[in-house]
UniProtKB/TrEMBL annotation:
Belongs to the LysR transcriptional regulatory family. It holds the Pfam family HTH_1. Keywords: DNA-binding, Transcription, Transcription regulation. The lineage of its organism: Bacteria, Bacillati, Actinomycetota, Actinomycetes, Micrococcales. This is LysR family transcriptional regulator. PROSITE patterns: HTH_LYSR (PS50931). Residues 1-58 form the HTH lysR-type domain. Gene3D superfamilies: 3.40.190.290, Winged helix-like DNA-binding domain superfamily/Winged helix DNA-binding domain (1.10.10.10). Transmembrane segments: none annotated.
């Protein structure tokens, strides 16, 4: 058994597809399949149940995967620590972000980071704030940009506020509210909505605002991707409540300020428990760009 075999197994487990896994690992599919088959023979178990159209982990594969990930991460961490000892930053940086991140220019920060540390591999992950907070605390993510309701804050991790923002109503250009200077929560309760999945931090911000106003609303569509939400609004199927910095300047929609609407706070979150050299270097990049992270 070797680390490359573990990489292949993890890639197949995450993509559920041998072809996509091979593309991710920059190897031909036949070589990847051959190495996984060799590992299965060595272990004496099948790691994947597969047909021409479907790939799933077997119970043995489910049991193998967590330890394989830990082994690979430990090996990569060992190599990164050795390189850092002589002033070279290597390894992996896992960055999580909400779909509606607005306070931090992630591509610009990564450009600066890449210029200084070209040997670091960066993994970008999108998700809900509550899930990413747990993953940062567990070490699965190194850094995450979160968006939480105004009276919440990240728990179990270090964090700094990046920005505060107020939600606006997002409507299609032909909507009766499109020309309004401001709209009340009571008027908005009459509309049909597209919003993030129930119980997600992005959804909770709006739900709390309507609950505080003792109003009910109809959320007919749920979506995890911002682009899909905007397309549903543009199509005239529903309206949305989104942070003003996220919705501003999007073609085909209009934003309307809300009287006593919900507020959102964006945080940068990270763990101070044994951070990798890449994590420390990325935090330094953000500090040099004017983000005070250790005050």
């Amino acid at each position: 058994m070797d680390l490359q075999q573990m990489r292949y197994v993890i890639a197949v487990a995450e993509t559920r597809n041998f072809t996509r896994a091979a593309e991710r690992c920059f190897v031909v599919q036949s070589a990847l399949s051959h190495r996984i088959a060799g590992l299965e023979r060595e272990l004496g178990v099948k790691l994947f149940a597969r047909t021409s159209r479907r790939v799933e982990l077997t119970p043995a594969g489910e049991a193998f995967l967590p330890a394989a990930r830990q082994s690979l991460e430990a090996a990569e961490r060992a190599a990164a620590e050795a390189a850092a000892a002589v002033g070279v930053v290597r390894g992996r940086l896992a960055v999580g972000m909400i779909p509606t991140v607005a306070a931090l220019d992630i591509p610009a920060a990564l450009e600066s980071f890449r210029e200084r540390h070209p040997e670091v591999r960066v993994a970008l992950r999108a998700g809900a704030s509550n899930e990413m907070t747990v993953r940062v605390a567990a070490g699965d993510l190194d850094i995450a940009v979160l968006g939480l309701p105004e009276d919440d804050e990240p728990r179990g991790v270090r964090s700094r506020i990046l920005a505060r923002d107020r939600h606006v109503a997002v409507v299609p250009e032909s909507h009766p509210l499109a020309g309004k200077a401001r709209v009340s929560m009571r008027r908005l309760a009459e509309e049909v909505y597209v919003d993030f999945p129930v119980d997600s931090p992005g959804r909770i911000q709006s739900d709390r605002a309507f609950a505080a106003a003792r109003l009910a609303r109809d959320v007919a569509f749920e979506a995890s991707e911002l682009d899909l939400m905007v397309r549903i609004v543009r199509q005239g199927l529903a309206i949305a409540l989104l942070p003003s910095a996220v919705a501003a300047g999007t073609a085909g929609i209009v934003t309307v300020p809300i009287t006593d609407g919900p507020r959102r706070v964006e945080y940068l979150a990270w763990s101070e428990f044994n951070p990798t050299p890449a994590t420390t270097a990325f935090l330094q990049i953000l500090e040099s760009a004017g983000r005070p992270l250790r005050a």
